[in-house]
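Course assignment 3, question 2. Fill in each field.
Student: A.L.
Task: Predict the tertiary structure for the chain below.
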Amino acid sequence: MKVIVFGATGSVGHLAVKELLEAGHEVTAFARKPEKLGLTDANLFRTAGDALDAKDVLEAVKGHDAAVITLGSGLSRKSVIRSQGTMNVIRAMQAQGVKRLICQSTLGARDSWSNLNFWWKRVMFGALLAPVFRDHELQEQLVEASGLDWTIVRPAAFSDEATRRPVIEDVPNSARGLDLKISRGELARFLTRQVIDSQYLGRAVGLSS
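Answer field:
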């Protein structure tokens, strides 16, 4: 399949590009500076653009079978890149007739709030990262209303190391006492699987150890 990854040079995005290539897909890496992606592959194509620029996104989406969104705001707590960038991707997909969308969000969004512990509810998402969390929630609402063949992926906090406990796939909202961690590699593999897997079509799925 021809897959475009938005946020392709990010901490998860670049791993998703790598996994998609290894799975045999033709991959377009969309980022402001895609040359920073340290990968070489005959099936890898780089497109420079800004996810906040609707024209950039519209042109980039053309000719693809699926889109994967791993947009992030870095250290910014006020960026709206997740919601506004996702809205641009959705509109481009609708215009170009591309249906399959996999969107990375966060565990705790909307009906998964109950999975979080006190620290995440009150300190992180309740105070320090409150604007980021609100942007994630808006992002999810936009995806659900898109009319596309979507899957929302809600990972717990990222880790570069393997998690202490096995990752739970499709975390039930009733789950408590989670480690609330997932390795970036595990998440990238899950995102890649969703491109051709319809198990979670039209659903939000949580991932956490």
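Instructor remarks: The chain has one domain: 2-208. Residues 81-96 form the longest helix (16 residues).
Grade: pending
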